[in-house]
Each structure stands twice: as structure tokens, then as C-alpha cells.
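Postdoc handover notes: sequence design on the structure in folder B. Input C-alpha cells:
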């Protein structure tokens, strides 16, 4: 059973300006400078799947990693570097700080945010949870440290189904936040009693079923890969539904030579590595004559440019770059996060795959 939380006030997303276009020579200079600064400052660069391919390549070239937000944080925790440079959005920097409180965590800009985070403010969400004290609170990892601290469970898209099935088997009613599409997908798959917070990812929310069907006609042999943060009518067309890492695995293992991919196009960098020679096609984010806000690429992820990364390392004033999480808040956020990780161990499952 699915019931919905009331919509919060209309949200005005603060869409950022795109980074300045750099010449090849400027790019080479920034990359060389970043590599030197990483060495000098005992730092490592971790980048999300949705950042620009040149940022993902730079992370790999310098001994960092490219992954989902939880794996980025775990990599940073386990890496010997004293400083982490997190190329992603703010909640990812917070997750890294939660797992590595003793390390300095920097971001190219703290203004890089997420529509799921913006759409789930802690005051409104807490008020809603307080109004339903008989519900178990389950939140997606794509949330602020404060929202995680308010939750009973934190989940990624790779383990959300298993955890909700577990809670449903115990007779628990669930508050789910913030992504309504992912929550609805899980509710449909599990039959759990879920009260849904009404947030969404602007990238995945814009994929269009009608246009996707038309694209499939043009590419009849292509498999459709869909992230479950997408609308239900888009998910219904999928040949494979899964987290970011699960979609990469699908492209690698499925026999198809063409794939229509309904997630942020930043994934193409790692997907092409995993499935060389296969053709990847962006799923449509607008119908005929329609416009799109994200056009299949998160505008805040795009803020992680070479100039911003260099600035996070070279700036004397780190105010616009360093991530802090209050110790008490960190301790509270670790409880539901560790609950998920401990549950994963009982399934002998490695948790990956939030957006």
C-alpha cells in the first residue's frame, strides 16, 4: 500500500552556471597542477559516476576512484591519504566526513547540491516523521547528514528492496524518503505499507515514456536500462532496472550490442569501459518540442570542473570547500548507516549503487 506525504512548498532549484569552457592547453595545465597538489597535500580524488568524464579519468589517473557515493566514502576511509577531494554533490562530502571524521574532506564547491537533498529539508521531514511515530523511517542515501540522523535505516538503491522486504516481514509500516519514484518502485515490488515523501531527482524525473517508446522503435534490438529513480511508466519499459553500478554490470553482461540508458549520461564513461564496443544511447528527457532542465546531466555535478578542483586544493581560505559534520550528528547518522551495512553482511552482499 502506498500513501503520499503532502507536497512541501514549491521548490525553486538554484541551478548553477556551467563551468567555463577551457582550451586543451588550459585543461592540461589544470590537470598537471592538480596532480602535483594531490601529491604535495597527501590527498586523493574520489569522483562520482555522474561527474564529467575528464574528472572521472583524472581520479583514476591519480590513484583515486570513480563510484557511487557510499563506495566513494568507503574508498576514502580506507585510503591512506589524509585529505579527500570529493567530486560530487554535498551529501556525498558529508557521507565521506561521517566515515572519515579524522580526515580533511574538501569539495570543489559546497554549492553543488542535489534536488533530493533540497526537496527533503530536515525540519519538514522531521515534522512529518513525528506525526507518524508508529512508522519506521527509511531514507535514501541521497540525503543530508541531518536527515540520515533522523532515520532508522539508510539504504542505497542496491539493497533497498531487501531491507524493505525485511521490515515488511516484521509487520513494520514505513516512511520512505525522499525519492518518490524509487519508493513507489520498491512498494510495488514488495507490497510493503509505505508512506512516501514527495521528492525526486530532476535528472531521472525527466525521462519520458512516450519518447522512449519512439526511440525503441528506431533501435529495436537495444536493451533499455533504467534507474528506479525514474517515473513508473519509464521503469515499465525497462529490460533491466537497477542502481548505477547494477546498470553498468547489465551493459557488460547482457548480450545486446545496443543500450538505451535512462540515467545521468555521466555513467557512459564507466559503462563504456565495462562494455567496450557496445553502443550507448541516451534515453530522451523531453518529448517532441519539449525542453528539459537537466537534459540527462545533473547541473550540480557539472560544477565539479578542473578549475574548481584546483581551487579546492590551492585556496588558502577553505571556507567554500571544507566539509564539516558535527560530532553528535555524525554519531546519530552512523547508527542507521551501520544498520544497513550490518544487514548487508548477513546477506553476504556488498552495498553499492545509490545514485
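Designed sequence:
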Amino acid at each position: 500500500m502506498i500513501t503520499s506525504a503532502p507536497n512541501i512548498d514549491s521548490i525553486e532549484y538554484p541551478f548553477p552556471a556551467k563551468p567555463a569552457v577551457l582550451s586543451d592547453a588550459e585543461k592540461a595545465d589544470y590537470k598537471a597542477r592538480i596532480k602535483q597538489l594531490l601529491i604535495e597535500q597527501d590527498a586523493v580524488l574520489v569522483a562520482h559516476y555522474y561527474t564529467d568524464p575528464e574528472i572521472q579519468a583524472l581520479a583514476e589517473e591519480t590513484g583515486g576512484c570513480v563510484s557511487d557515493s557510499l563506495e566513494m566514502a568507503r574508498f576514502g576511509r580506507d585510503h591512506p591519504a589524509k585529505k579527500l577531494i570529493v567530486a560530487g554533490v554535498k551529501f556525498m562530502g558529508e557521507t565521506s566526513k561521517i566515515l572519515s571524521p579524522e580526515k580533511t574532506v574538501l569539495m570543489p564547491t559546497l554549492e553543488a547540491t542535489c534536488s533530493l537533498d533540497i526537496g527533503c529539508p530536515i525540519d519538514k521531514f522531521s515534522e512529518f516523521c513525528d506525526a507518524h511515530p508508529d512508522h519506521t523511517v527509511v531514507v535514501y542515501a541521497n540525503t543530508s547528514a541531518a536527515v540520515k540522523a533522523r532515520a532508522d535505516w539508510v539504504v542505497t538503491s542496491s539493497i533497498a528492496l531487501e531491507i524493505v522486504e525485511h521490515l515488511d516481514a516484521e509487520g513494520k509500516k514505513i516512511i520512505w524518503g525522499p525519492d518518490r519514484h524509487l519508493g513507489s518502485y520498491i512498494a510495488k515490488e514488495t507490497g510493503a505499507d509505505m508512506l512516501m515523501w514527495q521528492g525526486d531527482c530532476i535528472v531521472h524525473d525527466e525521462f519520458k515514456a512516450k519518447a522512449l517508446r519512439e526511440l525503441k522503435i528506431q533501435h529495436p534490438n537495444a536493451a533499455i536500462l533504467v534507474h528506479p529513480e525514474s517515473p513508473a511508466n519509464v521503469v515499465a519499459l525497462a529490460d533491466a532496472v537497477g542502481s548505477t553500478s547494477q546498470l553498468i554490470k547489465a551493459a557488460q553482461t547482457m548480450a545486446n550490442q545496443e543500450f538505451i540508458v535512462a540515467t545521468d549520461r555521466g555513467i557512459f564513461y564507466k559503462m563504456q569501459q565495462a562494455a567496450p564496443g557496445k553502443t550507448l544511447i541516451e534515453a530522451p528527457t523531453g518529448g517532441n518540442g519539449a525542453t528539459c532542465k537537466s537534459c540527462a546531466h545533473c547541473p550540480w555535478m557539472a560544477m565539479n570542473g578542473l578549475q574548481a578542483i584546483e581551487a579546492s586544493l590551492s585556496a588558502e581560505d577553505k571556507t567554500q570547500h571544507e566539509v564539516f559534520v558535527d560530532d553528535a550528528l555524525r554519531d546519530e547518522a552512523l547508527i542507521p548507516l551501520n544498520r544497513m551495512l550490518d544487514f548487508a553482511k548477513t546477506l553476504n552482499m556488498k552495498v553499492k549503487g545509490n545514485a
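Context for whoever picks this up: The longest helix spans residues 327-346. Don't rerun without checking with the PI first.
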